[in-house]
Amino acid sequence: MNDFKNIWNLINSDHPEQSLNQISSHLEKITKNKGVQHSYNILLKLEVVLGLRKPRVALYDNALHFIGGAQKYGCTIANALKDVCDVTLISHRKISLEQLKDWYGMDLSPCQIKVIEIPFFEERTERTDTFDAGEADLKGENPFHAVSKESGEHDIFINNCMLEMVYPLSNVSEFVCHFPERERSRFFHVDQYTHIICNSQYTGEWIKRKWDLEPDEVFYPPVEMMPSTDEVNKEKMVLSVSRFELSGKKQQLEMVRIFEKMLKKYPQQTKGWHLVIAGGSVDDNPYLERVRMASKALPAKKIELKVNLSLEEIKELYQRARIFWHLAGLEQIDPERAEHFGMTTVEAMQNKCVPVVYRGGGQKEIIKDQKSGLFFDTKEELMDRTHELMGSPSRLETLAQTAFEESKSYTKQHFQHKVTTHFDQILKEYGSV
Amino acid sequence: MKKIPKEISDQVKELKRKTQEQRQQIRRISELVKKEIEREPGIWEYDFDELEQEIWNKHSRIQDKIKDLSEQISECSGKSPRDIYRFYKQLRGNFIRQNVINQEIISFYLAVILTLQKIKDRLNSLEFRVDQINREKEELMIEIQELKLQLMKQEKEQ
Fold first, then answer.
1. CB distance A42 to A30 below 8 Å
2. How many CA atoms lie within 13 A of A289 on its CB side?
3. Is this model's pTM higher than 0.95 or not?
């Protein structure tokens, strides 16, 4: 900062023409002592302060070419910045702005797209469209230096894929963290970022515990599942919406077993109720097959598996369901296996579908127990809570209404407002001396 | 802020272009920022999978033992039921004894590995802190040096 001020004072002097030589030699000295990036950053800031161009922002997400919640989060940030900054989206594979518009309904047309392939992952025998940074060889050279170098071409660098191995070179750098997956290694550079942004207090807590770093901001992810009509045709349906992960992290198999037990334990109260498990899946998913096999033990009318539905079909399910189940984190020790935030829980709340969810992870921040939903700690509690609700339509109604009201804090507008406020402050400081 | 003449803006752009060219020629990040940003690989990059592999390599004779055992089992097929029963009883006894020993050893090694892991994480985080403090120290030293130079310059001018 002092270096910038010194240069600025020379430019702002009464005879800036005479100072040009001095500026040049000053920069040379800085390059010699602190590296050429430092001089370059001074000149980048100078251009913005002098009003020669808009600030340049790079948003890096190595999985931008896949549809996903984290990618939508990043695109919403880009969308909020596109008018005041020149935004470049950096990905690992080719992706078009049209595709992003189809997925997230955002017109990012002023943004640029740049592909940076990581040689380490490209040289592997099995070339895949994505990579696991945890597989990087910690004994060799940091494979993400290509991204680091690119970051230094911009005023602001946003790392949206929580890749802690990218060393930021830009004047301002933002590390968006959806969960601290890995331990600190010799390639750990999160402490070099200007700000750490996380998606929930839960993630923030684990950033402190795992990395000993303090997050600066919590931006809850934007959730847009508000029904287009007020017409409610609720059915006696318990709904679950989550991906059929190969690891079984979302515990759909447990849901089937628990519902089966409920049917036996409370035959009267569960009369007319059925369970719908919806979620995306890859082809030939052995976990999905296990869920399918288990569901065959129940009468066909009592359970339905809905795989890879369209957004409209999911919306319709939310509108019909009365109760929402979420089991991620139940009987798990690994904090990574709990829900880091719980977007589908908010989606259910926006549709007046009462959440009955595991008391863990980010869910604790979304729901107020007994007011906007119900928590459980064990399978037995899940059965009891659900059974209570099934037998009390008025309670369901009250909880659904409160859940709906509280879900309004997680809308896209809310998220964009937080993003804009945060970056307005950054841009204000950056564009001034 | 007063208006900056166009020539100056152009000069700034030109300076930036030159610096950018200079920057593009440098590949290493540590050279771009004139400091080591990553330490050399050391003991902390020890791979526990490699450790397991190493253990199996050291005990490769186990494979021969397994082969012997399988041969003995095959021989049993031609013997009387009494011999087979005796053989299996003996084998079972050995397995039970071995199992008890294995469990104790496994628990012990697990505890050792977990302890090592914890020590590793702790030292790793300490090392990063030291590194951070050193970096801050270096930056402070540079600033002090610059301030000293400025002061000397001012004194001379006076």
1. yes
2. 5
3. no
Joined together, the tokens standing for residue A27 give 């920069």
Q: Token pair of A132, please?
A: 């696991």
Domain assignment present for A142: yes
Distance from C-alpha of B155 to C-alpha of B158, rounded to nearest angstrom = 5
The number of folded domains in chain A is: 3
Cα B106–chain centre separation: 24
B33 contacts A184? CB cut-off 8 A: no
- The chain B residue lying nearest A142, using CA atoms, is B38
Q: Identify all chain A residues contacting B40, using CB atoms and an 8 Å cutoff.
A: 186
The backbone region for B34, taken as left when phi is positive above 0, alpha when psi lies in -120 to 50, beta otherwise, is: left
Contact status, residue A229 vs residue A249, Cβ threshold 8 Å: no
Query: What is the interface size between A and B, counted as CB pairs within 8 Å?
Result: 107
Q: A369-424 pLDDT, tens per residue?
A: 999 999 999 999 999 999 999 999 999 999 999 999 999 999 989 999 999 999 99
B85 φ, ψ (degrees, to nearest 5): -60, -45
Q: What is the DSSP letter of A232?
A: -
For residue A93, give how far its alpha carbon lies from the nearest alpha carbon of chain B (Å).
22
User: Which residues are A92's β-sheet partners?
Assistant: none
Same domain, yes or no, for A82 and A214? yes
Say if residues A169 and B20 touch (Cβ distance below 8 Å): no
Give yes or no: residues A420 and A372 share one domain. Answer: no
Q: What is the CATH number of the domain that holds A123?
A: 3.40.50.2000
- A369 and A403, same domain (yes or no): yes
The confidence score (pLDDT) of residue B7 equals: 81
> In sequence order, what E strands does A252-393 have?
274-279, 303-307, 323-326, 354-358, 374-376
A230: in domain: no
Contact map slice: B 112-141 vs A, CB within 8 A:
121, 124-125, 128, 132
- What is the rounded distance in angstroms from the CA atom of residue A337 to the CA atom of residue A78? 29
User: B135 near B33, Cβ under 8 Å?
Assistant: no
A88 and A218 co-located in one domain: yes
- Determine, yes or no, domain membership for A308: yes
- Give the span between the Cα atoms of A138 and B149, in whole angstroms: 42
ipTM, 2 dp: 0.80
Task: Take residue B55 and report the two structure tokens written for it.
Answer: 């253990």
Do residues A45 and A70 share a domain?
no
pLDDT of residue B58: 67
- Output the CA angle A333-A336-A341, nearest 5 degrees: 120
Domain boundary among A52, A73, A92: A52
For B67, how many CA atoms within 13 A lie in the half-sphere containing its CB? 5
Domain spans, chain B: 6-36+49-157
Determine phi and psi for A214, rounding to 5 degrees.
Answer: -100, 120
Spatial CB neighbours of A397, under 8 Å, sequence gap ≥ 6? none
Q: CA distances (Å), A133 to each of A69, A120, A130, A164, B152, in order?
A: 19, 10, 10, 9, 50
- Closest CA of chain A from B20, distance in Å: 7
